[in-house]
Amino acid sequence: MIRVQKWHKPPGLCCRKPAIRAAKSASLAAYATWVLFSLTAAFAQAPTEQMVELSVRVIGAVQKDGKMQPAATAGGFLLDSKHVVTTDACCGKTEDGLEKTALVVQGQNGIVSQPVWSGPGGVVILELKNAAQAAAATLAPLKLTSQGQSVYTVVFPKDAAPTIREGKIQGALKPDGMDVQVYKAAPPPDDMLAGGAMFNACGQVVGINVLAQKGIQFAMAVDALAPGLEKAGVQLPAAGQPCGGAQSDAGKGPPPPQPNPPSKSAPRWRLPQGGEWVGVAIIAAILGLALRPNTRQQVARALTTRRLAVPQAGYAPMPVPVRPLRPVLKGISGQYAGAAVALDNGPSLLGRDQSAANLVFGPESDSVSKRHCVVRWDAARRVFQLEDLGSTNGTYLATGERLPPGQPRELRPGDRFYIGDLRNQFELRMEE
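The structure assignment produced for this chain is given below.
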């Protein structure tokens, strides 16, 4: 006779299934937390990355021999996906009378644009024909910026990736005859392009770079853009407090940017904008799938697989023609706006005396003296010289500094000055 023994459950076996279910729930919760972190991290951006993303080059291109060729290059920065701040070097006509087309260069793509506003100091706002890839800039007004604060500028070295240079604000000034404030910072970055942005350590725009001269970088405070933003219909977020929560970020805030932004920089949080909501919807759907069985590997692959951006068709980097450049005096505003006078054949005297001046001003230019100033080109040293000839109303640099009479001042290509008042402004350039 076979005895059948009654089977008893091992101790604790009755609790194993609930424990397994609890472990699975905890694992799914942890995985959901990881996906949510990935979602928020996707829209976090380091200040250094924000600076590089917003910074662009703007080329004033002309049609020659059936091809678009660059005639002038300036810096610039994106306000939003459809608007860029730069200088008027991108627009207008060349010395040969050719009309320039403004091309906003982001990466390897050039976007045709046109000016919609022109402001003080030759600053312009362009409207892009096609949208660029960028979030809206945040502006930090003058009241939130202080002496000693760290500021940063993106430069574009030849045949190299954009890099970031650091300086310190030395103070601010108000040029004579101009209702704007201009920052002074040092040291100025090499190869700085006028029209580019001056950023604070939080990646917010504090100024528009206008020139670098004698170890000083000058940038117009972003407050000057207010009329242009209103005219262009651009609404941007404004900083509500100083970067880092103090009047000076010296020794505070994120570490100074490096040429290649480190991945561990402090994130700059923002809500997704525009087409970025499509990505939110996709990741939200992935999150829903992550809570279903047997989908973890598919979700991981979807979140970690990088998709290469498809370059826009119809544009290729334009070859820069190697041609000799001539020193010229370019009229920016006033009686000689748009005109260019070559300086390699001799100095140019500006004034109302027809017998002495070769740039003669009419009687309506009452702020210009008979023999006001002279501009020379020193070919041996490759510098310009500007000298006031004892004028009544003065000769001024773009910074508002009045030149002492009879003391030539050395200037570089891109430097600007005005005579008498802001109605007659000029720029020194090297052109074909």
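Interim note for the steering committee: Residues 1-7, 37-44, 246-269, 293-322 have pLDDT under 50 and may be disordered. The chain is about 15% helix and 35% strand.
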